[in-house]
Amino acid sequence: MADHIPKIIAAITLLCIGHAEAQLAASLKITKKQYLAGEPVLAVVTVTNHAGRELVFQSDGRFQWLDFSIKTSNGTTVNPRGRKIFGPMKIGAGQTLAREVDLTQHFQLTEPGNFSAVAVIHPPGSATEGTSTNRVFFSQSPGRPYWTQKVGIPGRNGQTREFRILNFSGDSKSQLYAQVRDGRTGESVRTFLLGDTLMLRKPSATIDRNQRLHVMFLTTPTMWAHYEIDTDGRVASRQIHQRGAVGDPQLITMGDGSVRVGNSIPYDLKAAAEARKKTRKASDRPSGTY
Fold first, then answer.
1. C-alpha angle 228/237/226, rounded to 5°?
2. For the chain, what is the radius of gyration of the CA atoms?
3. Does residue 26 contact residue 131 with C-beta atoms inside 8 Å?
4. Which of 191, 240, 267, 276 is the most buried (most CB within 10 A)?
5. DSSP-derived secondary structure letter, 92
């Protein structure tokens, strides 16, 4: 009888694991269907605990509780970027929690193409069993390079970056992206959306004496956005400008290599918000009161 005790315990353990798996509901969604190659592909995994008890999902050094399977349109598996690490998640009985994951941080999603993704949630104590989500589909486009410039990196001898401004028509909108690439490998350091743009006016871009990219583009019929971006892809500043007295705002390179915006009226976001608040208060006044 004693010889059968380990087998009975193992059977009970497997039964509990299978029971927890069966009582999980999971789904996967992505923030949009079309991406520019290199920008973050954000996926949201939602898990509902129907096990009747609290569940703690965590890794034990041997496996991850959350995994993804990403494939190209021809069925080829997209390789991961090294070992994926996902932090723990505790879900109370009957609760639903969501975890957002940037798939580009964990998988080599660098090339244009069509892809599909499925997430697998492993219940506590199981490295093999798991609950699969629905399959989601997305595509990556190379975009159209509008402007490029290679620069050296201040303080890093021999290292270079390539700044790129890309135009991408996603979801029927014309959008402008900034991309910073490693000058040696050509890999994207960072790719990110600047905003929707109106191509009634061509965007302008230049580099200042600190090797920072300045880009300005029309966002509405009366507003221009001005970004300043460093060689690591960080946004150093962002300002909104309105048309000045004698034409459109312009990027002007000064004699000392600095860059400023000329012929513009800086748009004060805080002041505009306060003005809208005062307007709403006045409109909320009941009729017949003075």
1. 60
2. 26
3. yes
4. 191
5. -
| Cβ(225)–Cβ(238) below 8 Å | yes
**Three-state DSSP state, 140:** strand
Which pLDDT belongs to residue 129?
A: 78
Alpha-carbon distance 132 to 268, whole Å? 48
Distance of CA 240 to the CA centre of its chain: 23
The residues with which 117 forms a beta bridge, in sequence order, are 70, 136
Same domain, 171 and 119: no
Q: Is 279 domain-assigned?
A: no
And the tokens for 141? Answer: 């486009």
- Say whether both 134 and 157 belong to one domain: no
Region of residue 121 (left: phi > 0; alpha: psi -120 to 50; beta: else): beta
Side chain identity at residue 209, one-letter code: R
Whole-number average pLDDT of the chain: 86
Which ranges in the chain belong to alpha helices (H)? 5-22, 103-106, 269-283
pLDDT tens string 176-190: 999 999 999 998 999
Would 176 be classed as within a structural domain?
A: yes
- Average pLDDT over every residue of 118-133: 84
Where does a domain end: 105, 120, 140? Answer: 140
